[in-house]
Specification:
The chain is α/β, with parallel strands linked by helices and 387 residues long. Helices cover 48% and strands 16% of the residues.
Amino acid sequence: MKAARVLFFFVVVFAVYFAINAYVVYRGVHCFAPHTTGRTVVLWAGVFIPLTFVIGRVLERIWLSEVSDFLVSLGSIWLAAMLYFFLAVLLIDIVRLANHLVPFLPDALMERPDRTARMLFWTVSGCVAILLLAGHINARLPRVHELAVSVDKPANGRSSLRIVMASDIHLGTIVGRKRLNGLAETIRELQPDVVLFPGDLVDEDLGPVIKDNIGETLRSITAPHGVFGITGNHEYIGGADEAVAYLEEHGVRMLRDTSVVLDGGISLVGREDRSRSQFSGKHRKALDRLLEDVDRRGPVIVMDHQPFDLDTVAQAGVDVQVSGHTHHGQLWPLNLITRMVYEQSWGYLKKGNTHFYISSGFGTWGPPVRLGNRPEVVVLTLKFRDS
């Protein structure tokens, strides 16, 4: 049953992916006359490039090399290009259909459709290239987002707790040791009491992480009260047990449906990702079971990668929950979709006495591109009531 669900998921994803590519390539090819160099180049590029991400991901599991790195990188960039080519082609076709029903375009555009088509091809291609460059620069310039919230509970005389959080780092081929070095330096400068990684610390395949010796940089990230992480859906895609073992070996204490008590009687609870059942056939613990042995008279912090069921969390007596996963869409206009899927796609939300923060994430999945949002490192200061 588990294998069937996973297979069905990937069949649907690949069917949508190749359908979109077929539409984009078909429209691109027909911008050039038959038997011309332009049509041949677009056709072959349109066949090969969409396959590079899939081939590269498979290849890096059996032959991790510069070849697999190149294919994954090229395919990742194409994912963003594909989105914007698709939106552009769709818009053009809508305009063409509207003009067919009620003519409104200038006659000059319609007199030479072949020339107009080539002009549109190069204009759209240029605009997509500019968007990708701008989005790539933006993706490599994370901001530090600071906020403070008041928790109406005492913490055994402790007045505050300074949390530094970075979600969705996606360590691997695209986000490597150099990027993590920058994050580690930022965390040191922020002087946290505790560091939290709420899921997707590792991107799918662990091989590139080991090859790049990224674990040594993870070891350099420290805090007085510890460095903690939880699983996300990408740890499960690549193999959660292997990822967790590697992370714990390199200084990150992974909370898998478990809790710890920090200084001041502050309980930190880490939930397994909700995708656990999809990939392992086992369900994660319900929140009420996780909290059975937690002293809710003191502050309770929960890490849960995917920000679903926020009402349940608020009703359970949790004071703070930190999440990620959404990337706030990562690529505009996908943030419009994440806003519909999640009660809170990004940022701070308070429900009852529970404070939620959903991070847009530090890294990227797929294309190393962000448009319409910023990557971030979050500094969350909790202020406690005097006892």
